[in-house]
Amino acid sequence: MTRSLLLSNVRLADGQPVSVSIAGGRIAALGAQVEAQLGGLVEDGGGALLLPGFVEGHTHIDKTNWGQSWYRNEVGPALTDRISNEREWRKTSGHDAAAQSLALARAFVQAGTTRLRTHVDIDTDARLRYLDGVFSTRQTLSDVLDMQIVAFPQSGMLIRPGTVELLGSALAAGADVLGALDPALIDGDPVASLNATFELAERYHKPIDIHLHEPGEVGAFTLKLLLDRVEAMGMQAQVVVSHAFCLGALPERERDALLERIAHLRVALLTSAPPSRPVPPLKLCRDKGITIFGGNDGIRDTWSPYGVPDMLERAMLIGMRYDLRRDDDIAIAFDCVSNAAAQGCGFSDYGLHVGARADLVLVDAQSVAQAVVSRPKRRLVVANGRVVARNGELVDAV
């Protein structure tokens, strides 16, 4: 059983000095006059800034090369080039989804991520092999990392017969969320593709997280079809649209009409804030009440050599992509990898309040904005009430 813990001499984002009492993996008390429980552990925070554990809202830990030798990327520019190359490489290289997902997940924890949503490839070549590898990682780190797994048809669904059935098997086996991918440009039939997706979600009582890379008017058409199904099937607050590049490229009138429906149906949006693609309008989405949050997407894989498992860096990249310069605006970028991400993914009991799961990060920074910009070494990471990293290094038990 985890011993009680007191974090003393820490500061909230508003500068208020507090202590945090942790018992049973939860925040038991938070305030200026909190004392240690009898026999409990005490950690002096040294005046560090107290942040909630970070949330990775969209990544692909099953396909990473993290910690491995350099992958020479010579892939063609099209989305289908990357999909085909990756599928062949994973089939022939001996890539181990269990070992690699564990290595990347541990690196996430080391840098302060305590909640994570990962998309895992389901296809007719690998079937459920990659899923089984990530299931193993989830079990290994279950005490410290709250992981949601998305069953994701990376190679397409309708264009590869048998994939629908495999997705159903993945959901039955324990995947938390049903994924989908570009119903028009990959599957070639957005109506049939979305029908199959929503029928699976209804059958297995699962939420949906769809990759929508489709640009401009094509993306808008698919998005309208998706929103129609959300409304018809009563799936409000159960759907995430990841990337949603089309929302960054449409005329304002058409874009705003879509945003109004997205807000009304409580559909959430995910952005990795890529520098080379259109992105949904962050502040406008928030003003309309839309939950928009952040994630890394792939990290060091055959798609891209970029990315690190550090959500403060992702927050910084969100801030740079959206030209967030004021301290209060940079705090919005941090919200994208903390509270908004927890809300968008449906992670419960999150935050800095009594009763929340005790997922906490201490950094030497004067403010949230400085933490995002400077990305200091994590002085302490607490996950589910346990100290899991100290001074930027995992403790032995993790």
Automatic annotation (TrEMBL):
Report the InterPro entries cross-referenced here: Amidohydro_3 (IPR013108), Metal-dep_hydrolase_composite (IPR011059), Metal_Hydrolase (IPR032466), Metallo-hydrolase_Enzymes (IPR052349)
Cited CDD domains: Bact_CD (cd01293)
Gene3D superfamilies registered for this protein in UniProt: Metal-dependent hydrolases, Urease, subunit C, domain 1
Pfam families under this entry? Answer: Amidohydro_3
The coiled-coil segments of this chain are none
Amidohydrolase domain ranges (all copies): 140-389
Q: What is this protein called?
A: Amidohydrolase family protein
Which PANTHER family does this chain map to?
BLL3847 PROTEIN, CYTOSINE DEAMINASE
